[in-house]
Amino acid sequence: MKVAALQMVSGVSREANLARAQALLQEAADAGAELAVLPEYFCLMGRQEGDKLALREQSGAGPVQDFLAAQARALGLWIVGGTLPLQAHDDAHVFNSTLVYGPTGACVARYDKIHLFRFDSGLGESYDEARVIAPGREPVCFELQARDGQRWRVGLSVCYDLRFPELYRALARQGADLLLVPAAFTHTTGQAHWEVLLRARAIENLAWVCAAAQGGTHENGRRTWGQSLIADPWGQVLAQRATGEGVVLAELDPARLQQCRHQLPALTHCVL
């Protein structure tokens, strides 16, 4: 199965971001991808954290959800919609949610980001997602049937989740053989840790990893790391894009997954 990680440099206009996402999805479909993964905040990188509140949608209805469903249906793609703001339990917060759409346009899975990013460089760069984002609670996997009939168990995660290996082990215990990581890593933290963490999650869970990132300098002044990549279950990076908008493609071979898990059956050796 060919998969695509879509790298964006999203701005402050939802409509402009959706137009760029549409072009990238079309490029992925034209290249033969069956699964396309958009980055975190693909529909909005606002000027301030509170901008997410103005664009929140109710689960099941809204411009971004309608866009994702229509694109999946029109292109015959499985689409993982990066993240978008969905209504939470109060008016001051939203869930940062990943929605998955099948080729029929039906929404087949939802994951609300569990771990909320907080960082202070001490040099004027600081973030605290909990100010406007409510945390999710449950790990989520979904099943994808490829065009060749192969079934894949796919585990969902978002950005800062990458620092919490227990989440990925929980996904592995649910049978995940492909881990998805839409993200908007800062340039500072991404330069330090992004690739090594992604490769570690692939290696320790003997799973494919597809990470779609924001990558560049945004209208709001934020700088994201990029380096969207696809890694195999041995931790080898098969395809990667440094910065700027683009499509990262790789072929996922189920035989490679089985080979790695047969040679090193570490998942069967877990005792904790």
UniProtKB/TrEMBL annotation:
The keyword Hydrolase applies. The keyword Hydrolase applies. Gene3D superfamilies: Carbon-nitrogen hydrolase (3.60.110.10). InterPro entries: C-N_Hydrolase (IPR003010), C-N_Hydrolase_sf (IPR036526), Nit1/2_C-N_Hydrolase (IPR045254), UPF0012_CS (IPR001110). Keywords: Hydrolase. It comes from the Bacteria. Residues 1-254 form the CN hydrolase domain. GO terms for molecular function: hydrolase activity, acting on carbon-nitrogen (but not peptide) bonds, in linear amides. Belongs to the carbon-nitrogen hydrolase superfamily. NIT1/NIT2 family. This is Carbon-nitrogen hydrolase family protein.
